[in-house]
Amino acid sequence: MAITSSNLRSLYYDIRKYYGFKGEELRGLAAGIIVLAIAISFNEWGIDQFNLFYGLRNLFNAILIILLSFLIHVSAQRVMALFSGFKVEYRPWMYGLALALILAIVSRGRLWFIVPGGVIVYHMAGHRLGSFRYGLNYWPLGLVGLAGPVASVFLAVFFKLLLYVSPTNPLLIKAMVFNIWYAVLTMLPIPPLDGSHMFFASRLSYVFVYGFIIGLCLSLYFLSITLSLVLGVVLAAVLWLLTYIFFEKGD
């Protein structure tokens, strides 16, 4: 959809009217924040022995990181949905949250499984501002789902930039790593995760975008942002070509 002044006015109106979260959504987000905060701070309740103050401080820091990450991730999807003429509602994935907690316990906090939930997309009644839009189809749904992981990638890159200023800051490192895994894992093509929307929209587009996210994010921890971007593009191109040759060429 082309970006015009009319569409921007329509988006501004829609954000003011429809952006807010329902009570059920807030409860789902709160559940995800608490569970994942416990999971990623599970092994941070004391160095040699249990320390309540140390653990509560790390739990609070984890809550702040996840709250910010959730807000950016979900807000990007809401704005993209409103721009496309849709509304979204966040739904927690209880199986994913349960598995996150189980893995944290079994691995003593070493394994993070960050798949808190996804969004359900609804058609929004049109109004006089903006172009006419009606009906659901796979491509705009894919873009709505993709907006969340892309926002998480940008947030991870932002924390990487801050690490150039404070390279050993543990809070910045944790925030970057959390958003890396948040982007990578929520792009899995499993309903109701974000990646499933793009997968059903276009398998080739999904493979390219997911390859880029994996290449960028998993190298971001060790390499510079520029090199990570290059590796992301290379991996995306290779995976796209392989998928086209072996799975799509004969269709």
Question: What can you tell me about this protein's structure?
Answer:
By secondary structure, this protein is mainly α. The chain has a domain of 150 residues. Helix content is 69%, strand content 6%. It starts with a helix and ends with a helix.
Q: Total strand count, please?
A: 2
- Whole-angstrom Rg: 19 Å
Main beta sheet, described?
A: 2 strands, antiparallel
- Structural category is mainly alpha
What would you say about this model in short?
With 251 residues, the protein is mostly helical. It has helices at 5-18, 23-40, 52-83, 94-107, 138-165, 170-186, 194-201, 203-220, 225-248; strands at residues 86-92, 117-123. The chain has a domain at 5-154.
What keyword list fits this structure?
251 residues, mainly alpha, two-stranded antiparallel ribbon, 69% helix, globular
